Structures are given as structure tokens and as C-alpha cells.
Amino acid sequence: MKKQTTILVALLLWCCGTVLAQVTFPYNGVKDQRDGWYAFTNATVIPQAGSEIKNATLVIKEGRIVSITPNGSVPEGAVEVDAEGKYIYPSLIDMYAEYGLPEAKSVGERPRQQPQMLSNKEGAYGWNEALKPEFRAHEYFTPDGKAAKNLRGFGFGVVSSLQQDGISRGSSVVVSLGEERANEVIIKSEGAHYLSFSKGVSTQSYPNSLMGVMALLRQTYIDAAWYQDTDEEGTNLSLEAWNDVQALPQIFAVSDWQEVLRAQVLAKEFGKKYIIKGSGDEYQRIAEMKQSGATFILPLDFPDAYDVTDPYDAHQLSLTQLRHWEMAPTNPAKMAEAGIKFAITADGHKKSSDFFGALRKAIESGLSEADALRALTETPATLLGISEEAGTLATGKWANFLITSAPLFAKGTKIHHNWVQGKPHVMDALPAHDLTGDYTLKAGSRAYNMTVGAKGAKIKIDEETELDVKYSEDGGLITLSFPQDKGAGLMRLSGLVDGDMWRGRGQDPTGAWINWEAEKTGGQAAAEEKEGKETAATAMVSQQTAPYGAFGWTSRPQAETVIIRNATLWTNEESGILEKADIMLQNGKIAQVGGSIRGPRGAIEIDGEGMHVTPGIIDEHSHIAISRGVNESSQESTAEVSIADVVDATDVDIYRQLSGGVTTSQLLHGSANPIGGQSALIKLRWGYTPEEMKFAGAPGFIKFALGENVKQSNRSNSYGIRYPQTRMGVEQVFENYFTEARAYGEAIDRGEKVRRDLELETLLEILNGERFITCHSYQQGEINMLLKVADRFGFRVNTFTHILEGYKVADKMAEHGAGGSSFSDWWAYKFEVVDAIPYNGAIMHEQGVTVAFNSDDAEMARRLNQEAAKAVLFGGVSEEEALKFVTLNPAKLLHIDDKVGSLKVGKDADIVIWTDNPLSVYARAKHTYVDGIKFYDMDEDVTRRAALQDERNALIQKMLDAKEGGAKTQPAKGRGQRHYHCDTEDDEGR
Q1: Which of these, 88, 123, 805, 911, is most buried using a 10 Å CB contact count?
Q2: Residue 713 placed within a domain
Q3: Are the C-beta atoms of residues 927 and 699 closer than 8 Å to each other?
Q4: In this structure, is residue 499 part of a structural domain?
Q5: What is the mean pLDDT of the segment spanning 858-863?
Q6: CATH number for position 716
Q7: For residue 781, how many other CB atoms are within 10 A of its CB?
Q8: pLDDT tens, residue by residue, 113-145
Q9: If we measure between CA atoms, which residue out of 449, 534, 518 comes closest to residue 478?
Q10: Among 505-519, 718-732, 838-852, whose mean pLDDT is lowest?
Q11: Spatial contact of 270 and 338, defined as CB atoms under 8 Å apart
Q12: Last residue of a domain, one of 522, 548, 580
């Protein structure tokens, strides 16, 4: 048995490793027969999270672990490496790396300023280049020595490497971080299939919205199943690859917690189980993350503090940004506390120091070291299917391990070695002697108490005086220097290390030669030197609210029994307006209306003297609360997309509009194409999830459009490729698609085997009276055209929205049965509205058209009661009928008037208590109820604003303190709120 006290000798004995070399490859020269047999003694071995073996001997041979035993003997023939005082951990595993792969590049280029309708990729591949299931990372993988060395410095021994581009990103390759050829380091040629909601570098027009991405994924799942079961499709290598990768783990990257829920919608629809590569904001909705049942990969890319020295800069930051800075490091701990399984990735970090700094921050914020280690070893190994080989240290597994100077996550810990499949990679050479501990130092006539740490030493003179000692050791030769006393000259000593004794000669500050010796009296100091200024842990300032931002709830409001007495009730029923009447809300419904109500014990009673109660306002045409794009404008028909997929429950406009009495909104697709996307009908249940906000049982709607936007008059001529470009072409779009949809339905009725087409399926619902059209419209000629198209195909146009020339064709609309959802007095904002008049709504109403006034604008929606009043001003409509323009009439247009729109027993308790006549400019919504739950209270709002200001100020002060303490900062850049309009055509989050 050979024993070496330093690993350097062992490394010299290691030739260019042959233990794992592939036998099918030839070699040049004399074959190396050595087997890499090593015994690491006297170490503290952590074989897996939560387990520790002290004074252990780890034996490896031929790249694998032979044994781990406490106080184990060294096998005859093995090279002994003394690791006394050191720790041995399993090497880390990253499931989300981008190692050894080329940068993603677009496939060709699209013509300047012109849309690209199909993929540029040559070959028998799919039509959309944002889907790349055929990308197999192992076919492009090339080991990168520099990058591998950097990752080994992070502690990683294995990574799953993918090209982070596209909606389907193809399969990853699982590789070890050795220095061999690709064929030797590839562990699994296909590790996992990766997906995202981002189209990446694709220059193709479709999809240009998040709802388009969702629709494309749905149709791809459907088409791949169809392709597998039919021989009618020809060859499609993309669909073949899609089917092949379904057997792999499915990893879905998201950008926020709402996208987790969107991914889970797809998973449920198609029987998939996604591993979610999260964004770091999961703590905002832990209950929903737990309920999703998903396993996560969590990044530790915590934001730096903002530089809020300038108060105007600080004012730009939202409360969500301020809170996220403080709360992001708690995310892993909160996920662990909830029992949610997760791995950790270094994605987002370029330097190991930053990554371990973030890890320590997560641990300081409550994550246990065991959970941290498990998330970097066992969990990723299990998810990648390599747990039999890696992730823990056990007999027979790969010799993938780290040798560290101290516990892995402690501040100042060095990774000395990273062994990958039995081959050593030196990060920081192991010292020959463990010098740390307490010493009695005698130098000449003076005696000192000295404490030696990993990075320096100190001499303690008394309670208030410490002297810094500089020392270095090389091969047993040691030098020290320190002041003889505080402020005095230096003692300079040199000598040899002999076990626990140091001896030698040196000079005092006068230059006189002296003898010296130091004897070790105790083990390593419990506390190492601290780098930088230590700060005491401070209490969290941030409130945990839903939504996670201004005006969110710390706890959800609940429905209660409420009686409003002596108020003026605008019933919208035959009873009309009731003076000094009562109304009771109970179990989310309107329980009693009128008279003197005797309520149950414990009911909340509100004195409604001088107040008015109306049904909640219903906005038939809104674009609030939508994520990443209101238009899928890439094709003339995008009937397959749905706003319901992209409801944004965090949009503060929901709260603002509750303050204006709005309780229900139809979220419409924009007007960029003749056949747009499906709409979403929501109740403004502030603080709920997107799915919980949806109006249960509501019928389906879809947005159509006419006029300038769809024929792209507002685009340059060079953009004019997408059909249609004329008003005649718009009509032909409807003719073509409805003809195709009718044929699709007839084929299904005949029992033919038909490829399921989400676009045609939606249009068939219109023909079957199962889905209703809301059509963006202005000019009478086009309005008349669509009425005739509908008559020819046997369906009814439900609603013309905008309809500013409705007064010209009101008789035809009434005869057809179409409603009109208009603006009260918008005009002159583009040529199409040149004939708009403020009497439009009143004239349509007189002709028997069901008329509503809508907002199409986040600001206007807060004062739709005043918009309704304009019907009284301009058209002489009665006040009672005018209020119906924003309550009962939109409910009728949306086919939900059996549930909302009037104060009727049994209807949903969606009501507003106003301080004045609801049509008055002086009226304010005092309380707004949805389903009998008070979601807005005018007086509470004042209190909440003051509390929010206090919280902002506290967070800003905490950031200022962090900067003062030396923390990194970033410029204070706010994220301005985006408001969509009908013609907005971009996805700002892609």
C-alpha cells in the first residue's frame, strides 16, 4: 500500500484517463493498464442529503465507488489520499444547462417588413419553425473544455444540456463534465423533451401571442396523434420526432406562476406530466403550485437591490418589484415547506461565487441544507433516470464527488476537487496540512493566543484588541507576520510544521533574531473569519397577498349575508326603481328584493339612506387582464386561439374597475384579422386564479372584425402579403372558412375519419348555434355584408361592437336579431368613424336593437355609468333604460341575463352601492359585490392606500440599508403597465 499526504502526487500518477475509455476506439502508443484505485481517508462523507459518515474511508476503482466505511482500512495497492478535515459530497447535477451546444439561429430570413407564413426550414419537416422536436442535442454536442471547467467550479459533475430556444426545444443530452471526447462523456443521448411558451428566434409570423402558442401546442398534440394513426399525411419528420420524444421526461419552462397553471391545463388535456422549470415567483401562489402536482426546477437568479437613492427613481418601481427583491430568496424554502418536490438549477448564473452566494441566501431564508443538497443531487438524478449511477455516493455508483474544505454551503468553503467518473479535476489544491485551530505562540520573550482559520489568523491581546496575522504554508515551510503590539512594528517568523508544532527563527520589529514556536491547543475554530460586514437578520416587510402586488388580499374575502336598508334600488325588472327599499344578499345570490326585509341573526346591515343600489356593470368589450398579446394577427383566421388561455389575474385594472362598479367583463381578441380568437367572460373576482375568475356556464363567443384593421390599411404596402387586403377579400374569407367548416361538419356527421381541426371546430360551433359572434364594425356596407353572409350560412350575428354607423342599418340589425355594443360618443379617431354621431345608441334602441355601451379601454371602464348617462343627454333615453345599456343589455347580448344584469331574487349577488344617482358624475361606488363577496370598499380603499405607502417606504429603506451595507444594486427601472387596444399586435413577453 502506498500512502501520499497530498493529492498532487496522486494526480501525477494519473495518466490521461483510460478507466472509462471506449474499447471500440483505437489508441496510439502503450496502453495504460492502471485502474484508478484510490482510498480517501479521514474525511467526513455526506453520501446523500441528511446523512453523514465521520472519519470515513471512501474507496474508488475503475471509475466507481467500491466502499464507504467509517474508520475503514486502505486496500493493498490503493493510493491513499489523506482528506483529514475535509468533506466529500456527491457531485451536483443540473437539469437545465446549455453546455456544449451551438447558439440557436433562425432558419433563413423573412422578407423585410413582410410576414412569413410558413417555415423556412428545408426538408420534410413541420410547417412551424418554432416547433423543433426533431432537434436532438446529442447530434450537435461538442465538449467545451473551458465551459466544462467553469461548471465543475460550480460543483457540477453531470448536466442535462439543451438548446434554450423555441416552443418545442427538442431533446437534451445528458453528459458528464469530463475532458474526454463526446462519445465518452455522453451518458444519455436523449435526456428529456423541453418546451416553453416562447417561440425564440423563429422569424415566422405565427404565433405572435401567448394564446397562439397555446393553440399551436394543442393542435400539435392532436396532429401528432392523427399522424401516428393515419397514412394520409405523407411524411412529416417533425410530427414523427414529436411522437418519439413523448416517452422522455417532459420539462416545461415558464416565466411566472400563471404560466405554471397554463402548462398544467395542457398537461391535463393531453395526459402529460410536466416537470416545470419555474421562474422563481412560485412563492406568490404556493397553494396553487402544490395543487398542480408538478415537480419543479427552481432557478436561484435572485434580483439585486434597486438603487433607490433618488426618490423619483424609486417611484418608478412597482410594489411587486420591491417585494420580489425581498421575497425571492424565500422561494425554495416555501416550496420545500409545502412538500413540493424540486431540483435546483444554476441557470442564470455565470460565476460559481454568485451561484453559491444565492444558495446561501436561500438557506439563510429558511431552506435546509439537506433540501438544498437533495435538490442538486438526488432529485435531478431521479428525474433524469440516472439515479442508479449518480446523485448519491454508494457502492457501485460512479465516482462523482466533491472534496471541500468545509460544509459545502458554508461561507468561504472551497471546492478542492471535483471527481467525475473517477477522474480528478483540481479546483484548489488540497493543502498538505490542516493548520486551522487554536495555538499558543511563543516568540522571543512574548507569548500570544493565536487562532488560525482557512483564510487567515488572529492574535487576541484582550477583549478589545486583536492583531491580524498573515501566514502562508508550502510543503511544510511556514511564514508568519504580525504587529508585535497594536500599532507596533512587525514580527516576521519562518519555520517548519511538524504535526501540531511549528518551530523556527525570526526577527522582531528591531531586527533582532529570535526563536519561536507555536503549539496547537484546540481544533478548528467554530467561527471562521467573516467576509464583509455582518448584518443581523431583519424581519420581512413584504405582505403576502393575492394578487401579489398593490391592493391584493392577505386573506380572501368571503360571502356573507348582507342587508342594505332604505336605499334606492334600480332593479331593471318590471318593478322598476324602488325608493327606500331593502335588498338581501345571501349565499352568493340575491335572496330578497324590496319591502322591509327581516334577515337572519348575524346578518351585516348597511344603512342605505341616500344611496343607490344597481346590478353590477357588465363590460361587453374589454381588453384588460390579458397576458402577452390581445391579437393573434398572423393569419386571416385564428379561430383556434382563446383569450381564456391567457387571462391575467394579476392585472390591477381588475381592482380599479371594481372601484367603478364593474363586476363582469368580456375579454375580447383584437381586431387584426377577419376571424379572430375566442373570448373569455370573467367575473372580476380580484385575488382569484385565472380559472376561478371565469364565468361558469357562460356560452362561447368569438371575435370577428371588419374594416381597416383586417385589410391592413394601417400597415405599409410592403407588409401586404397576408390575405385579405380589400373589403371584398374580407367577405371572401368568411365565405371560404364557413364553406370549409360546413364540409368539415358534414364529414363528421357521415362518420368519416377526420383530422380534428381546432379552427374548423370553432367555426362549426358558430354554424351549429353553439358559439356567438361579436364583430368589430364601423361602416354600414360591411355590416350589411356580414348579415347577408350569416343569412346564407344559416347563423345569426350576435353582436356588432363599435357599430358607429349602426343608426344607418338599425332596422336591418333588428330584423336579423343582432345587438349593438357601441361607444357613447367616440368619433374622429380614424377615417372609418367619420359618420359617427352621439345619437347612435339611442337610435338603435328606438329601432328595437338591444344596445350596450362598452369601454374597449381600461380607463373608460371605470366610468361606464357615466357613459350610460350620455344616452340620456344625447338621445333622450330614460334614466332607467340608460342604466340597462351597461347592465341588463350586455347581459342579454352575452346570454347571461338569467344570472346577472338585474336585481332579481335568485340571480348572482353582483351589485354596486352608489353614493348618488348612478348616472351622476358625482356618484362613486361605495361597495362592489361579486357573488355576494365585497371586493371593493371605498372607505377600506383609503386605509389600504396608506398601508401600501408604509410598506413601500419600509422596503425602500431596507434597500437603502442593503446598499449601505455593500450589497450589489441595479438601476431602478419600473415595468410600465401595458394597456391593450383592438389593434395592438405584439407579444411583449415572448
Answers
A1: 911
A2: yes
A3: no
A4: yes
A5: 95
A6: 3.20.20.140
A7: 12
A8: 678 888 989 999 999 999 999 999 999 999 999
A9: 518
A10: 718-732
A11: no
A12: 522
* DSSP code of residue 723: S
- Number of structural domains the chain divides into: 2
Res. 43: pLDDT tops 90? yes
The predicted-structure confidence for 604-629, as pLDDT tens digits, reads as follows 999 999 999 999 999 999 999 999 99
**pTM for this predicted structure:** 0.90
Half-sphere exposure of 929 (CA within 13 A, CB side): 31
- Domain membership of residue 886 (yes or no) is yes
CB atoms inside a 10 Å sphere around CB 950: 11
- Can you say whether the dihedral through the CA atoms of 345, 351, 352, 358 is positive or negative? negative
Could you list the beta-strand ranges (E) of 103-176: 156-161, 168-171, 173-176
Partner residues linked to 771 by β-bridges: 700
Rounded Cα distance, 796 and 790, in Å: 6
Which has the closest alpha carbon to 136: 198, 190, 195? 190
Structural domain boundaries, residue 880: 617-721+766-900
- Domain end among 499, 522, 545: 522
Give domain status of residue 652, yes or no.
Answer: yes
State how far the Cα of 872 lies from the Cα of 845, in Å rounded to an integer.
12
**pLDDT score at 756:** 97
Q: In this structure, what is the dihedral angle of CA atoms 865, 868, 873, 879, given to the nearest 10 degrees?
A: -90
3-state secondary structure 333-372: HHHHHCCCCEEEECCCCCCHHHHHHHHHHHHHCCCCHHHH
CATH label of the domain that carries residue 510: 2.40.128.120
Query: Among residues 801, 828, 831, which one has the least CA distance to residue 813?
Result: 801
661/515 same-domain check: no
What angle is formed at CA 633 by the lines to CA 631 and CA 638, rounded to 5 degrees? 90
Beta-carbon contacts of residue 300 (< 8 Å; ≥ 6 apart): 280, 332, 344, 345, 346, 348, 349, 355, 358, 359, 361, 362
